[in-house]
From TrEMBL:
Keywords: Glycosyltransferase, Transferase
Every Glycosyltransferase subfamily 4-like N-terminal domain range: 14-157
Limits of the Glycosyl transferase family domain: 176-336
Lineage of source species: Bacteria, Bacillati, Bacillota, Clostridia, Lachnospirales
EC number: 2.4.-.-
Protein name stated in the entry: Glycosyltransferase
C-alpha cells in the first residue's frame, strides 16, 4: 500500500482545498494510506473521509510568543519531523507557501516531493524572495503538477520535463445535476467576492446590459473575502439604483441547482489558476463569457466561439457586447451550452484520479 502525505494550509473552503479534499477522499477508497498535514483548522472546511489521517504541523499555542524567525523555523521543523516519522512514499503539496515548506522540509529524508501549482505565477511569485526561492527550491522537486502550459512555462525547464498538466476534477454533484429546460432571464457568476475576480467590471458591464434588456438580472453567488470587494460592489449597486437587478446572493451549497437556472454564466477574473467555478458552469451546460486571463485557465478549456466565448481581461465593453449577444441569439446560446457539456469527459473525478495515480507511480518508479 502506498503512503501519501499531502501538505496544505487547511481545508477551509477554497479552490485548492476543494481539489485536495476530493482527491484524498478518492485515494483512500483506492487503498492508499493518506495523511493530510495542515497548518491550521479552518472554521468551515471541506469534509474528509474518516480514513484520511489529519495531522497538524502548524504552530502550537506555546509558539505564538516566539520571534518571527523562530516561527518560520518551527513550521519547517514540524513538517520535517513528520516526514521522517511517517516515511511516506511521496509528499504532495498544494499552493505557494506549502510548496516551499514541503520542498525544504523533505531535504535529507529521501522522500520525493510533488508540488502542485494552482495560482498564476506572474501574480503570486512576484516578490524578490519568490524570484530567489522559486528557481532554487523547485529544482528539488521530483516532479510538479500544473494546470496550464502557460503556468508551467514560468518554471525551470528541467522541472517542466518531469512535470504534468492535470486539470481540476469537478464534484460529482455537478456532473449529476439536472439541467432545467426552462431558463430564467438571469446572468450569473459564482466565486468569492475578491479583488482579482474583478466582479466590479462585470457589474459595470451589466448596468449597460440592463439598459438594453431591462427584464434581465445579475446574480452573484459567493462568500465575502473581507478585502473590501463586497463594499465596492454594494456601492456600484447603490450609485446606480440597481438593487432590483444586481443581487449579491452570498455563499451557497446548492450551486449545482441554482446556476443552471440562469441563461448565461459570466466570468470576469483578471488572473486565476484553473478556475473551478468556470469548470462547474461548463459542466452544467452553461453558455459562458469568460476573460482570457493568465495563466491560461479559461483558454485551456474554452475554444472561442465553439464551447464558450473568450474576451480580453478587463474589457468591460466586450463583456457587455457578448452578454447582449448571447441574450439575443438563442441558437448560439444553445450551441455553446451543448459543446460545453463535453468538458465532463475530461474533468470527472475518475478521469482526474487516474491521471494522478499514473503520475504518482511514474514519479516513484
Amino acid at each position: 500500500m502506498r503512503k501519501l502525505l499531502f501538505h496544505l494550509n487547511c481545508f477551509e473552503q477554497g479552490g485548492a482545498e476543494r481539489v485536495v479534499s476530493n482527491l484524498v477522499n478518492q485515494l483512500v477508497q483506492e487503498d492508499y494510506e493518506v495523511i493530510a498535514a495542515t497548518e491550521w483548522q479552518g472554521e468551515v472546511e471541506f469534509a474528509l473521509d474518516p480514513k484520511v489521517r489529519r495531522i497538524s504541523v502548524g504552530l502550537r499555542p506555546e509558539d505564538e510568543e516566539k520571534s518571527r524567525i523562530t516561527k518560520i523555523y518551527l513550521r519547517f521543523s514540524y513538517l520535517h519531523r513528520l516526514i521522517r516519522e511517517e516515511k511516506p512514499d511521496v509528499v504532495i503539496s498544494f499552493t505557494r507557501r506549502p510548496n516551499y515548506r514541503a520542498l525544504v522540509s523533505a531535504i535529507g529524508t529521501h522522500v520525493p516531493v510533488i508540488p502542485a501549482v494552482r495560482q498564476d505565477p506572474k501574480s503570486y511569485y512576484n516578490t524578490w524572495a519568490d524570484k530567489l526561492l522559486m528557481p532554487t527550491l523547485y529544482r528539488l522537486a521530483k516532479g510538479c503538477v500544473f494546470q496550464t502550459a502557460e503556468q508551467m512555462s514560468y518554471f525551470p525547464k528541467s522541472l517542466q520535463k518531469r512535470s504534468r498538466i492535470i486539470l481540476n476534477p469537478v464534484n460529482d454533484k455537478y456532473l449529476q445535476a439536472e439541467i432545467p429546460q426552462q431558463k430564467e432571464k438571469v446572468v450569473v457568476q459564482s466565486g468569492r467576492l475578491v479583488d482579482f475576480k474583478n466582479q466590479a467590471m462585470l457589474f459595470r458591464a451589466f448596468i449597460k446590459v440592463h439598459e438594453k434588456h431591462p427584464d434581465y438580472i445579475l446574480k452573484l453567488y459567493g462568500p465575502d473575502s473581507g478585502d473590501g470587494t463586497r463594499e465596492k460592489l454594494e456601492e456600484i449597486i447603490r450609485q446606480n439604483h440597481a438593487e432590483e437587478y444586481m443581487i449579491l446572493m452570498g455563499g451557497s451549497d446548492e450551486l449545482q441547482r441554482e446556476l443552471p437556472k440562469a441563461e448565461i454564466y459570466a466570468f470576469s477574473s483578471d488572473y486565476e489558476g484553473m478556475p473551478n467555478a468556470l469548470l462547474e458552469a461548463m459542466t452544467l451546460g452553461m453558455p459562458v463569457v469568460a476573460t482570457d486571463c493568465p495563466c491560461g485557465g479559461p483558454a485551456t478549456v474554452i475554444e472561442n466561439g465553439v464551447n464558450g466565448i473568450l474576451i480580453p481581461v478587463g474589457d468591460e465593453k466586450a463583456m457587455t457586447e457578448n452578454i447582449n449577444r448571447l441574450i439575443e441569439d438563442e441558437e448560439l446560446r444553445e450551441g455553446l451550452a451543448g459543446e460545453a457539456l463535453h468538458i465532463r469527459e475530461r474533468i470527472n473525478g475518475q478521469a482526474i484520479l487516474q491521471q494522478w495515480k499514473e503520475y504518482i507511480e511514474e514519479v516513484l518508479e
